[in-house]
Amino acid sequence: MDEDGADKGLAPDGTIAREGAADRVAPVFAPVVEAARERITAAYGDALHGVYLYGSIPRGTARPGRSDLDLMLVFHEPPTGADREAARRIEAELDAAFEQIDGAGILLEDAAAVRADPDDNGFFVACLCTPLLGADLADELPAYRPTSLLARETNGDLHLFPERWRAAADGGEDPRAVVRRAARKTMRSAFTLVMPYWGGWTSDLERSAEIVARYHPRWTADLRRTAAAALDPVPDRGLLRMITDDLAPSVAEEYRRAHGVKTPR
C-alpha cells in the first residue's frame, strides 16, 4: 500500500501484477472489443500468435467518447507491410464505427522479438496487456519487479523524443495527436523514473503526476498539466513547447543520472 492507503499494483510476492482483465471491460466498450476481435481474425487468421488489449479499456478506467482502443497483435513471423496496412484500415474502421472511442491504435510485433526483449516488450505484454485472442506470451516471460533496470529498459530513451515531437508538429501532423503522444510518453517516463523508489506500478497518469511530484516537487505544475493533456489532449502549441523544451528534457537528464540510457535495440 502507498502512504495514502492506495494499492501499489503488486502481487503478494512483490512482483508487478498484470493490470488489466477481460472482466474489467465496461459494457459500453464490449461491442468495440468484439468488433476488433472479428476484424482482426478475418484479416490475419492463423498468422497470429496472440492478440492483446491494453490501456484504459481493460483496466476498467476508460471514458466513453474520450478514451482510445489500444491493441497489440503478435505474429508468428515478423509482420509485413501488408499486415501494417491492414492494421491501419482496421483502426480507421473501428474509429468510424464506434463513437465510444476517440481513435484506435494497433501495435504489431512478432513473438520472437517479444521473447528477445524481456525487459521492454516482454514487460509490456506480461504486465500491461490483457489477452484477447490466441496464446499468452506472459506464460513464457519472467516476473517483474519495480527496479532501476526495468525503468532504464522501458523509458530510458526519452531523450530521443522531444526533437521528433517538434518535427511532427512543424511538419503539419495533427497537433492534438502530437500533444497526446508527447504527454503520454513524458508522463510514463516521469513515473518510471521514480518507480524504484516508490516501489510499485501504476498506469494512472494523474496519480503518477502526484507520485512523481513527491520526489521532484519543482515539476509539480508541469506534471499536472502534462497528465491532463495525456488524458484530454488539446492542440496547444504552448503546452507542447513546455513538454518538449522543459519537462521532457529535465526528466530525461534525471533519468540518465539515476538509471542510465536504454540499451540500443
Comma- or semicolon-separated keywords:
265 residues, Beta Polymerase, domain 2, 2 domains, globular
- Report the end-to-end length measured between terminal Cα atoms: 35 Å
Helix content: 40-55%
- Numbering strands along the chain, what is their spatial order in the largest sheet? 3-2-1-4
Poorly predicted regions: none
- Relevant CATH superfamily of the largest domain: Beta Polymerase, domain 2
CATH architecture of the largest domain: 2-Layer Sandwich
CATH third-tier fold name of the largest domain: Beta Polymerase, domain 2
- Average pLDDT: 96
* Radius of gyration (Å): 18 Å
Structural class: alpha+beta
- Main sheet attributes: strand count, strand direction, barrel closure: 4 strands, mixed
According to DSSP, the number of beta strands is 4
- Please, how many helices? 11
The first-level CATH class name of the largest domain:
Alpha Beta
Give the SSE string.
Answer: HEHEHEHHEHHHHHH
Q: What's the structural domain tally?
A: 2
Query: How much β-strand is present in the residues?
Result: 5-15%
Name the overall outline: globular
Domain Polymerase nucleotidyl transferase: 50-92
Pfam families: NTP_transf_2 (PF01909)
Protein name: Nucleotidyltransferase domain-containing protein
InterPro entries: NT_sf, Polymerase_NTP_transf_dom
Q: What would you say this structure looks like, in words?
A:
It contains 11 helices and 4 strands; from the N terminus they run αβαβαβααβαααααα. It has helices at 30-44, 56-59, 81-97, 111-116, 118-128, 148-155, 162-170, 175-198, 205-215, 220-231, 237-258; strands at residues 48-54, 69-75, 104-110, 129-134. It has a 4-stranded mixed β-sheet. β2, α3 (81-97) and β3 (104-110) form a beta-alpha-beta unit. The longest helix has 24 residues, at 175-198. The mean pLDDT is 96.
